[in-house]
Amino acid sequence: DTAVSQTPKYLVTQMGNDKSIKCEQNLGHDTMYWYKQDSKKFLKIMFSYNNKELIINETVPNRFSPKSPDKAHLNLHINSLELGDSAVYFCASSNLVGTYEQYFGPGTRLTVT
Amino acid sequence: AQSVTQLDSQVPVFEEAPVELRCNYSSSVSVYLFWYVQYPNQGLQLLLKYLSGSTLVESINGFEAEFNKSQTSFHLRKPSVHISDTAEYFCAVRGSGNTPLVFGKGTRLSVIA
Question: CB of A13 within 8 A of CB of A82?
C-alpha cells in the first residue's frame, strides 16, 4: 500500500547512456513533482505536473524530459547522462489546493560513471 | 521568490538533551511552512506543518515548531532527543497557488549516547 513508489531504487550507468526513472502515486493527488538532491543534501525542484500538464519547469538541461501518461504517474527520462547528473532523485505528489503537503517517494540513487 | 535559511548545517546533541533547529524564511503575504525529516538512505517524511491558526504546531513524536511572523521564523524544537532522532531535517516554505515547495539546505541532527 505504498503511497509514492519509484523504480529503480538504485541506478548505475555510464556516461552518454539514456535512462528512465518511474514514479507512481496511489493517493489520488492531482500534482506530481521531481526533485534532485545533490551530494550536499540540497533539494531542488525540477518539474511539476498537474493533471498531466507541466506547470513548473525549473532551469534543467533539455536532456531531462518528464512524461506524465496519467495523473498517477510521472516518469523522468534522461538522455546523454553526465557525471554531474549523479544524485538522488525524489518523486513527490500533492493536491494543488488544500493542505499543500507533499508526499515523497523513497528516492532513486543515480550514479553515472 | 521564496527562500529558506537553515543556519546550522550540523547540530550534535547528547541524548535526552533539548534541541532547537533554526529556520528563517523570506517574508511573503501568506506562507505555508513545513518540517520534513530524512532518515539515512530514506525519502522525506513530513514531520509537521503550519498552514494557519495556532502558531504552535506539534508532531506525534515530540517535536514542535512555532510560527513567528514578526521574525519570519519557524524553529523546530524537542525537549528531550533520542538516538532515533538522528537524521537530516529540512525546513520548507510554499506560497499560495502554483508555487513550488522551497527547501532549506538541511540540518544534520546527530544524537550522541
Answer: no
A contacts of B51 (beta carbons < 8 Å): 99-100
Q: How many angstroms away from the CA of A86 is the closest CA of chain B?
A: 15
Amino acid at A100: Y
Write out the DSSP string of B68-107.
ETTTTEEEEEESS--GGG-EEEEEEEE-SSS---EE---E
A56 touches chain B (CB under 8 A): yes
pLDDT digits (tens, 9 = 90+) for B25-39: 987 667 889 999 999
Burial of B44: CB neighbours in 10 Å, binned 0-12, 13-18, 19+:
buried
pLDDT by 10s per residue, chain A, length 113: 679 999 999 999 999 999 999 999 999 998 999 999 998 888 988 988 888 888 877 778 899 999 999 989 999 999 999 999 999 999 999 887 766 788 999 999 999 99
Provide the terminal-to-terminal Cα distance of chain B, rounded to the nearest Å. 41
pLDDT band at B94 (very low <50, low <70, confident <90, very high): confident
What is the C-alpha to C-alpha distance for residues A46 and A57, in angstroms, rounded to an integer? Answer: 6
Cβ B106–A42 below 8 Å, yes or no? yes
Per CB-CB distance under 8 Å, the chain A contacts of B98 are 50, 55-56, 96
Q: Name the closest residue on chain A to residue B49, using Cα atoms.
A: A101
Amino acid at B83: I
A102 — contact with chain B (CB < 8 Å)? Answer: yes
